[in-house]
Design brief:
117 residues, mainly beta, four-stranded antiparallel sheet, three-stranded antiparallel sheet
Length: 117
């Protein structure tokens, strides 16, 4: 049995999901690269938005990001991706929205996409 004592604020749906499904960690060997050794891949706000899928685009042109809002209204999520702010479009309440994240002239851009892209 796992439980969490919380004030019941806006973080409650996210905390409930974390109790239901623990994050998956996969250790991989280190290798040289252009990115710093530490840092965050991505940050998403508000907390009512959850990442459903993140995968390389099948054509090799960036990544496909799928997110869902558990808020009862439409939201415009804010994404910080590899240290850069990326503008996303509005998400309808409860629906899954997908974007293609692609690097153009040194800046990450997001465009609506299909999860199958």
């Amino acid at each position: 049995l796992r439980l969490a004592l919380t004030p019941g604020d806006a973080a409650l749906p996210r905390l409930a999901r974390e109790l239901e499904q623990t994050p998956l960690a996969m250790p991989v060997p280190a290798s040289p690269g252009s990115r710093p050794r530490m840092g965050s891949l991505m940050q998403v706000q508000p907390e009512s938005v959850r990442v459903v899928a993140l995968k390389p685009a099948e054509d090799g042109g960036g990544f496909i990001l799928a997110m869902q809002s558990s808020d009862g209204r439409a939201v415009t999520p804010r994404l910080k991706w590899l240290g850069q702010l990326v503008t996303l479009g509005k998400m309808e309440a409860g629906k899954i929205a997908t974007w293609r994240l692609a690097l153009r002239d040194g800046q990450w851009e997001a465009a609506p996409a299909s999860i199958l892209s």
